[in-house]
Design brief:
Blueprint lengths: L4 E7 L13 H7 L2 H7 L3 E7 L18 H19 L3 E6 L4 H15 L4 E6 L20 H5 L20 E6 L4 H8 L4 E4 H7 L2 H13 L3 E7 L21 H14 L2 E7 L10 H13 L14
Parallel strand pairs: 1-2, 1-3, 3-8, 4-5, 4-7, 5-6, 7-8
Helix pairs in contact: 3-4, 8-9, 9-10
């Protein structure tokens, strides 16, 4: 089972894309009652406040079109250090902030897993694959690069060295519906498990997730879950700058989080891309808090915990 202590780490990262607003995300989760919700579920909650990016980072060798490269390198440094420290204390929840925060959160938890001699796995719940490199991204927005970075793809000049890259077969992406040609071609040549919304419509969301969770359990893996607001259909979660119609329903998303809880495998969590400036009376922040509650055991009716063997 996950550690009984949850550590909230605010990561007001707003450098991974040009549309501003994710800087307000961490405090929106706090206002929506994330800490109180976890406490009601029996967890001890520590709030470490909001991080700040480190200074004096070197981004001179990144392509000219990259947006805010130096700042994002600073955030990556800070998040790697914080993630490694938090993993020794409990289950960290990284409150975003745009998805470039996962360059640091995933790299940091992977370093901890390596020290613990456990394989690191990543469940990526997102409309996008985020598998770009700084050279392949046409937009220059680094929130589209975290999976490229943590798997050890080349071109991340100035970023901390990825000392424990995530094996491709240890990554599962669910919810894809916006993947550009460069990413599609790159993904198709990898061992990454990826499932677009057509597959989910045809076969359901539980099947690919069950297969992946069983594999994590068989390997005694540490599981990092990265939940992007745009995994959800924007009709349910409008507070994101990268809206793509046709996303997961709230019920599908709760099923995913309940299955994660049942598995007892999650060791760290990202909540990313919440832009409160685009929200409707806190609607999206509340949905994300409710989904987090499902990942930590909230149920309508209690069911026996499933033991993967």
């Amino acid at each position: 089972m996950p550690p009984h202590s949850c550590i909230l780490i605010g990561a007001p990262v707003d450098s991974g894309k040009r549309r501003r607003g994710c800087i307000m995300g961490p405090d929106a989760y706090r206002v929506a009652g994330l800490s109180e919700t976890l406490s009601e579920l029996g967890y001890r909650v520590e709030d470490w406040g909001n991080l700040a990016a480190t200074e004096n980072s070197n981004a001179k060798n990144l392509p000219d079109h990259i947006h805010a490269g130096e700042e994002t390198i600073g955030w990556t440094n800070a998040l790697i250090n914080s993630a490694e420290a938090a993993m020794d204390q409990g289950l960290p929840i990284f409150l975003g902030g745009d998805h470039s925060l996962s360059l640091g959160s995933v790299a940091g938890v992977a370093n901890h897993a390596a020290k613990s001699e456990r394989p690191q796995f990543v469940l990526w719940l997102d409309a996008h694959s985020d598998f770009h490199t700084p050279q392949s991204t046409a937009s220059g927005n680094l929130h589209g690069t975290p999976l490229g970075y943590v798997t050890g793809r080349e071109g991340f000049f100035g970023f901390p060295e990825v000392t424990n890259p995530i094996p491709q077969e240890n990554i599962c992406i669910i919810g894809l519906r916006s993947v550009d040609q460069a990413e599609r071609e790159a993904l198709q040549s990898t061992d990454i498990r990826y499932h677009d919304m057509r597959q989910i419509d045809e076969h359901g969301i539980a099947r690919p997730l069950t297969t992946f969770l069983e594999h994590v359990a068989q390997q005694n893996g540490a599981l990092h879950v990265s939940l992007d607001v745009d995994f959800l259909d924007p009709s349910f979660a409008p507070a994101v700058g990268t809206t793509v119609p046709g996303g997961a329903t709230v019920r599908e998303a709760h099923l995913v989080m309940e299955m994660i809880s049942d598995s007892g495998l999650m060791t760290s969590l990202d909540l990313v891309e919440l832009n409160p400036f685009l929200d409707e009376r806190g609607k999206t922040a509340q949905v994300m808090v409710d989904l987090t509650a499902s990942a930590f055991g909230r149920r309508v009716f209690d069911r026996p915990t499933r033991a993967f063997t």
